[in-house]
């Protein structure tokens, strides 16, 4: 009926007023003008019928009807449309009280026309148990007034009793039907609210996951590029200082050139990390060319002999797969330079005819026990990168036997 509900007592099963969602509130408000128009039509119809009948006490009866209409305009609309419990109960008290007076004055029962509006209003404004009690009390009181007024109006006591029972049954049936509609609508509204809250929570979780993923991506990129580049700069700066102490200006110039190139690469990588573009080593280069440049740089910095080996016919890979291979090579070469104590190392890139593309970094250094060695962020990052593109990463090493890092990515 486009209405609201007051706060229910514990004995009432009706949901509390205000528990409906904004969508349900909007639906109620959108129907208010039709409800107001219907009740206004009932008031006008009652007035017209009373005037046409011209029965006694016309002025008093018309005054009662008009006061009911005014009470609805002042309090009833607020009790229904704005969900004001006090205004709603005040209106019902005035309306039902005047209905009893009308029944005492109206021998023809014309005032019953207004009950087509009052009954639904009562069920809509009050909680179910309270509404049922109000309707029963009002009908019984009106029936008692009609019985008391029977000798004057000529109404038969049996007829009054039968009509009262019929009205009682009809009003309760109608009220329970209205209450059920309101309950179902409120339940649907709460379900929609729950869905909206769940969607909001999922959206927040996805945003948080996206932020965490972006942080992890940036952390991996910084570790695999900037941190290693800065390590190279520090190493080269120390080598430059030693060359200066020896007076080897040629070595100083070479180290300064490498420092400049490494710093430029780091600057490029920093910009690309922010923009999430292709790594600087792959800009305008093939993967094999980028790997050769990395190996040459590590050899120049460390003095170790490094080689690049390409097996099979090179194919164009997705950009994210090439990034995984390049970053794994960078991580492997960083470990070779800092920890291996090797004299030689190799980076091999294998293109299988019908299988995955594999990159392997090997060295003849001191090796380590992968089971005993705590995995650093770089190895964990390499594993995560490979997994993201459907590949896999593993480490094979043992003390005194060098190490081998291998990553495979699908074509």
Can you give me a brief rundown of this structure?
The chain is an alpha+beta fold and 411 residues long.
Q: Name the structural class.
A: alpha+beta
Number of domains: 2
DSSP strand (E) fraction? Answer: 5-15%
Low-confidence stretches: 1-20
> Regarding quaternary structure, how should these chains be classified?
single chain
**Helical percentage:** 55-70%
Which whole number gives the mean pLDDT? 78
Main pleated sheet: 5 strands, mixed
Describe this structure in words.
Strands 1-2-3-5-4 form a 5-stranded mixed beta sheet. It has 2 domains: 181 residues, no CATH class; 128 residues, Histidine kinase-like ATPase, C-terminal domain (Heat Shock Protein 90, 2-Layer Sandwich), CATH 3.30.565.10. The longest helix is centred in the middle third of the chain and has 90 residues. It is of the alpha+beta class. The two termini are 64 Å apart.
Task: Spell out the key features of this protein.
membrane; 69% helix; single chain; 411 residues; Heat Shock Protein 90; five-stranded mixed β-sheet; 10 helices; rod-shaped; disordered N terminus
